[in-house]
Amino acid sequence: MKAAVLGATGxxxxxxxKLLSGHPWFKVSKLVxxxxxxxxxxxxxxxxxxxxxxxxxxxxxxxxxxxxxVDIVFNALPASISRExxxxxxxxxxxxxxxxxxxxxEDVPILVPEVNMNHLGIIEVQKKNRGWDGFIVTNPNxxxxxxxxxxxxxVEFGIKKVRVATMQAISGxxxxxxxxxxxxxxxxxxxxxxxxxxxxxxxxxxxxxxGERIENADFDISAIATRVPVIHxxxxxxxxxxxxxxxxxxxxxxxxxxxxxxYKLPSYEKPIVYSEVPQPxxxxxxGKGLTGTxxxxxxxxxxxxxxxxxxxxVRGAAxxxxxxxxxxxxxxxx
Length: 334
Prior knowledge:
six-stranded parallel beta sheet; 14 strands; NAD(P)-bd_dom_sf; Aspartate-semialdehyde dehydrogenase
């Protein structure tokens, strides 16, 4: 399938391009970026780009929209312009997006393949509602993606309440998100809008698709989001109140959690590996960035506490979106 990457020169866009290099199902034929970058070779803008794309000439979004001529789109554009662009493209072409613009639409899934693959079923509802031949599939906010992968094995124990404090890497803010002076020797206990996203996206992802709409999970969740001086890798301290608590069974649930094992997806990696003391510098690149790490699992009154971490640009962004597209392809939606 011919693919386009929108926002190809940003941090998430660059990650899309690297992950799609040599992909057996999706061949990137168009790299789309700003007017400033249009007309330049990709390797001129992104010096560490994969060799196969260095000579590709970047095209502007305006030019691309005139004649997309691709079979699938991966979107890393800012949310501020994504809604209109995605809706225009999805009339004909499937769009897999990292932007938040459509995450909260009732007929659009926020997909984490290992957690809620059956939510892909709402694509047919979306196409019927909107009269589209294509569709939109979103992936969650980066910290939400990492959290929900770790919560999924606990669903069988009855999740009642979740409390999470995140320690998020600076790359999550993009190239211009934070000055070196602001984050050096510092922790910033505020990320605008992040806590709302974690709380609301998690309930949609862990909710149930009833054939017509997604019913949000009914557990209580509250988050505090902080920015820390780490380049890549979000770490999260998680406290979960459960209906039943058996620490040995919960540890086994983490170890055995592997819903995509038999789907033979090109990007497949085991979603969770247990390490007693998760650390971003040591563990963020596990499974090419798609494997999350869980550790520090302990029983507390009425539940458990643990630490989880994952690569925010891969599991939490571009890698999750590529995995979404692979699963959609395998299940016949593409």
